[in-house]
């Protein structure tokens, strides 16, 4: 399936639909990432803390997909936000991946109480200047800390990766992103199996109308909003199914009906403002 790309600040582009490997053990990650690459995914999302960068790197080499056709993201963990630690952590991630650069490096969480989220951002700016990473961004920054790093350094993240799905639409942050030319990337796009999102009658009704699956409808909604989305599955048929969402086009009315599913208590994961480690 043809996956659209979005332009990143700085001139690179990112495939809008990628493959995430949270909670996938290293050896399993090598297998399922290879399945994903064979299915046609060209954008992979891992992190130091997932413990599977080595497996993801192995899959990349086994696949034979040329490096320049791939978009690889990894993330700086919360225990290495001090400047020198962050530089070393990125080098170690590249070593485990077997790559000489990643396309996108993210600060994984702001952890405001730790007080190092500005320093970590400065380290990513340095890593980009050194050429170890093509684009830099953040993940899980509350609005306040997001605005602070931009004001302090004059450099806006190319991307902000946040929990986002129809039950938790993050309108306030998306507004700030639009003002600064920051792309929004959704983690937990399918709701992480923590809610009844994929059984919601609005979602299943639209799915039936298109002969599509509920997961495809939710992913097509992300794409319709110019959001980058990185669903995870370890089931080969679902890996293929999720990628095919790139070919599902929702009507404006369908997008609006899903927009109406936003809930004040829709967050499924940790709150970035209060996460402490
Ligand atoms: P997700 O919303 O992608 O949900 C994954 C789960 O949904 C699967 O385990 C499976 O149970 C189910 N599923 C997948 N495809 C399906 C289908 N076609 N039909 C029915 N059910 C299906 O949640 P996630 O894995 O947590 O998030 C996606 C990716 O985002 C992660 O793998 C990771 O790369 C990234 N992530 C980042 C952060 C962060 O803090 N930056 C946090 C969580 C996840």
Automatic annotation (TrEMBL):
**Residue numbers marked as site, Lowers pKa of active site Tyr:** 75
Alphabetized UniProt keyword annotations: NADP, Oxidoreductase
Domain spans labelled NADP-dependent oxidoreductase = 24-262
- Cite a single GO MF annotation: oxidoreductase activity, acting on the CH-OH group of donors, NAD or NADP as acceptor
Q: Which residues form the active site?
A: 50 (proton donor)
Where along this sequence does the record place binding of substrate?
108
Q: What is this protein called?
A: Oxidoreductase
Q: Which organism is it from?
A: Brachybacterium alimentarium
